[in-house]
Amino acid sequence: MSKNNIKNSLKTGSDKDGYFGEYGGIAAGENLMHNLEELKNAFEDAIKDKKFLDEFAYHCKHWIGRPSPIYFAENLTKKIGGAKIYFKQEHLNHTGSHKPTNTLFQVLLAKRMGKKKIICESGAGQHWSAAAATAAKFSLPIIGVMGKIDVERINQNILKAKHYGGKLKVVPGSLREAITAAIKEWSNNPDYYYLIGSTCSSAPFVDIVRYAQSIIGKEMREQFMELEGKLPNEIIACAGAGSNFSGSIHEFLDEPEIKKVVVEAEETAALTNGTKGIMQGMVTKFLQSDDGSKSLGGTSLGAGIMYYGISPQLAHLKDIGAIEASVASDKELLETYKLVAQNEGIGISFEPAAAITEALKRAKGKPKDYIICATCCGRVEKDLDVIEKLIGKDFE
Amino acid sequence: MSNRFNKIFLNTTQKTKLVAYFVACYPSYEKSLEIIKKAIDSGISICELGFPTQEASGEGPIIKKAHDHCLEKNITLKDTLKLAKEVRNYNKNVGIILMGYMSNVFKYPIDKFVKELAEVDADGCLIVDAPHELKEENQLRNALTEKNLSLIKLVAPTTTNERLKIISKFFSGWVYSLNFSGVSGSKSADLKQVEQMIKKIRNLTKLPICSGFGIKTPEEAKEVASSGCDGVVVGSSIVEYIEKNANDKNLTQNVGKLIKSFILELNKQ
């Protein structure tokens, strides 16, 4: 969707029917088609409006605290022995993750569309607390839908969202059920704005969320040029559905010399182990039963990377070899958390621990001028209780 | 489209036809077959056999619960096709459509699904999450057309006139007019809105129009029928009845009575 003069650019977004290659599209009921079209038109119109984009940029800077800094993890680099390891510190954003960039963009869009109420889903609760904070700032009522499993294990985000004025609806299950329930709520109330948290579901959601989050990669380019005088050799980020990874790599999609590696939770690695299917409003890779009637996959400590599907754009990019995919286990997440906390004095959440796990593996033995940047998309607060319970003794 | 729909809607003994939705193989394969046979004997014109999926994004809690029950028992689309075959063996005149979500059909995969749909002599299918913009819908629609089967298209109150014109080119069999934009079983239909919808669609097609969503009682069915539609679709209230009385030994007889009470009211117009 962005203007681009490169032939066969990968940065153009989805085609007119919302597909990225053979993935994406709109697999939604007729009752939602008008909403989706209205949203698509509003989005395309908004990103041509300088005033709107200036407003987004203003609040990104002053409310979220962007740009989030890049950080040279010198101690870890020395410890591993190889490439220079950098973190893109998205956890330093307001609300503690990359999520508010998307919620800010979409709440501004909702306001522009004249919407009076917002509904959203959430997995780890990072999107929910960011969405509720944004809705509070712009005085819009908001309803969040979360799965019972996630609500029970993460309470800090839920408490924060409550204090921001968000009303939470709890449904049985996890993120999958939350998305389905939120879409149903939207079907019943087409005048709501549906604020999706990641690069999934029907077009134009994938393009909208990726557009908002692509600021991560844009900042990285400037920051690396300033600090290192060159771009990183590899960019690594974790993915549930993929907004953090998409946002980190979009800027560099037409630069194949930069390796882009996505890391999923081992238990729900749709890109690595999934098959093509149609669920949750989109055509993409899913972990699903052979007959397509059920989703599969276990549970990961990283609630935000526990999703049985993946962004259709990422499914396409993987098929054409533009990105690589890897996985991280719970054990690795815990080990990496500990390493980062003890060596760098940074408390990361389980999700970015997946990306940093992969970064550490890849850094080993690489030349000293080789740069690997891992996006650190969340801070530890939401996971502290679990970490203390599982490995608290290790720190004594 | 199949000739069967033509015959069904040309038949004048019943002015407004009753289309009944069942969650296939619910509460069990045998019981479901028995109930559907009874429903046919009680006067339904078309039966919709819902095949279970975890997705069910358009379904309210009543139908969703029945889907989940079937999934737990590992009921698949294959079982639904088998059920359709037995229903067809029982009655040659009733319309049969399979209803559900793209996920199962895509994985079956599409061509095999259509081939087997033709083999069991069903009349078509209705896929909730398959707008014509979806490439896989085109693939399914083309395959169905080749076998003389219908892909029943939906029109919602939120469908714009411009879009309706486009969709009308893809109508086949009959048109499913949604009475409100929401999930199944959640609210009641608004007669004025239904009338407007039917009128709008009627201007664009000669095919029969069936009105569905929000029809819970025989009286509501009669009211919606007065909008001038050719059929009414009743789903959640039948499924709910089955859900609440799954262990009643008179379940089949009573579903028959429930269907008859709908027919009785529809014939009063």
Overview of this structure, please?
The complex is a heterodimer of chains A (396) and B (269). Chain A has 396 residues and is α/β, with parallel strands linked by helices. Chain A has two domains: 126 residues, Rossmann fold (3-Layer(aba) Sandwich), CATH 3.40.50.1100; 216 residues, 3-Layer(aba) Sandwich (Rossmann fold). Chain A is built from 16 helices and 14 strands. In chain A, strand 9, helix 11 and strand 10 form a beta-alpha-beta unit. Chain A starts with 18 loop residues before the first strand and ends in a 5-residue tail after the last helix. The model of chain A has no long low-confidence stretch (mean pLDDT 95). By secondary structure, chain B is of the alpha/beta class. Chain B has a domain of 188 residues: TIM Barrel. Chain B contains twelve helices and nine strands. Classes of the chains: A alpha/beta (396), B alpha/beta (269).
For the biggest sheet of chain B, the summary is: 9 strands, parallel
- Record the strand order, biggest sheet of chain A: 3-4-14-9-10-13
Output the CATH topology of one domain in chain B.
TIM Barrel
Strand sequence of the main sheet of chain B, in spatial order? 5-4-3-2-1-9-8-7-6
Q: Let me know the number of strands of chain B.
A: 9
Shape of chain B: globular
Gross morphology of chain A is globular
The fraction of residues assigned to DSSP E strands of chain B is 5-15%
Question: Would you give the CATH topology of the largest domain in chain A?
Answer: Rossmann fold
Write the layout of secondary structure elements.
The complex is a heterodimer of chains A (396) and B (269).
Chain A: E1 19-20, E2 23-24, H1 30-46, H2 50-64, E3 70-72, H3 74-80, E4 84-89, H4 99-112, E5 118-122, H5 126-137, E6 142-147, H6 148-153, H7 156-163, E7 167-171, H8 175-188, E8 193-194, H9 205-213, H10 215-227, E9 234-238, H11 243-249, E10 259-265, H12 270-273, E11 275-279, E12 282-286, H13 312-319, E13 324-328, H14 330-344, H15 350-363, E14 371-376, H16 384-391
Parallel strand pairs in A: 4-14, 5-6, 5-8, 6-7, 9-10, 9-14, 10-13
Antiparallel strand pairs in A: 1-2, 3-4, 11-12
Chain B: H1 3-10, E1 17-23, H2 29-41, E2 46-50, H3 61-72, H4 77-90, E3 95-100, H5 102-107, H6 110-119, E4 124-127, H7 135-146, E5 150-151, E6 153-155, H8 161-168, E7 175-178, H9 191-202, E8 209-212, H10 218-225, E9 231-234, H11 236-244, H12 251-267
Parallel strand pairs in B: 1-2, 1-9, 2-3, 3-4, 4-5, 6-7, 7-8, 8-9
Helix pairs in contact in B: 2-4, 2-12, 6-7, 10-12
